[in-house]
Amino acid sequence: MKRKLLAAIMLIVLAFGVMAFAACEEKQNDNEDVLTVETVPGGCLRTDLRLAVEIDKQISLDAPIKLKVKFGHVSEATVPIAAKLSVYNGADMMEAKTYAEKAKVPTTILYETSDFVTKKNYIKHKVDENGCEYDLKYPLSLKVEIPKEHVSREQGSLSFLLSTISLDGTFHRIEASVTIRYEIRDGEIYFFSPSN
User: Where are the domains of the chain?
Assistant: First the structure.
């Protein structure tokens, strides 16, 4: 029963996650061909979860979509906290009107654990004179291949959602998201930050 309830709550988190606006910013990367988009530009927006996505700005339509996701937390917990990192097409999720329709949007789980808020998953960082965090050292990093079903339309977005839920019976949840826009033309997929 608890697993079904947890699954239902995570589905609701996913549905609302696409509607929630998370501050995202394109970060300068040493490699000009790589796009990096992360939550909390400048580190001044207070949030317990952080993630960053790195992807080539241009990929052949015939090539696999490979990217790197870095993430972690900057919080403390006295109860077990489950976490799930997933990706889906943001435009598909926005078009889905009901929970049943949202549940049918193809979603790929990239990471899942029942004990996320631990010391090993804590993002080491520095704090400037304004109290803003910088020089983030993400503890978790995944190199993944995204299924092509997530870029099934000529224009859309890849939405990455990191969501947590407490397992103490309160089911308190926190989430952070990153969105990367894409456009398909001339046999290539072009990726952009959400602000472009």
Answer: 2-192
